[in-house]
Amino acid sequence: MSDTPPKPDAKPDPKPDGRTGLEPDRQVGQDGAVRDKLVATKEQWARDGRALTGHAADPARDRLPPGQRLVTDWPVLDLGITPKVTTANWTLAVDGLVENRLSWNWGDFQAQPQESFVSDIHCVTTWSRYDNRWEGVSARRLLELARPKPEARFVVFHSFDGYTTNVALSDFDDDGVLLATSWEGQPISREHGGPVRIILPKLYLWKSAKWVKRIELLASDRKGYWEVRGYNNHADPWLEERYSD
Predict the structure, then answer these.
(1) How does pLDDT run across 218-244, given as a tens digit for each residue?
(2) Per-residue DSSP letter, 30
(3) 31: containing domain
């Protein structure tokens, strides 16, 4: 498949599992059996309610969400696929319910104002890391240019590996939300979703899609890859929204 995002007027119908019907791009990584085992394991976690404590926390008072442990490294978690995305072939489409559809290459992205944020990140697999220093283009800058239509209420992120995940537009249009290219002063590595990944610091990290290639605005919610496999649709770490009810 080409690295070029699909034309909006030729958008494929969503699959029942929340993916778009697009095949993954050229990729390297683990074989299908390993990937299937990983997915089955995480689906079992959802059925078992793994790591749930039954407690809520106040983010204004409790920096570490319930059930989390601090780490100083940055664990690599994905679907066993690392797509061959570089600054030379990366593209981004912003479409759906917007007044101004965007189609960017790396040069277009770099021409936008670059911002810096420091935020904590929290993974549903129970690790958290404090004070991550990010640089990139803010979600609010992107939305300012794309101009969501009044009926737009949800966002779906599409990645180069075929992954999707969904959030409310209000969660995307928030402080500290970034299309990040740099972590701790260095370009984000490919294994961590470089050259561009989403960072939504107020939600569990599976919502912060790696290798983002398309941002689609919708009137109605559409669940993504993990959301149809038993994971919570909103994913607030302080409310322990790890899994579906």
Answers:
(1) 999 999 999 999 999 999 999 999 999
(2) S
(3) 24-239
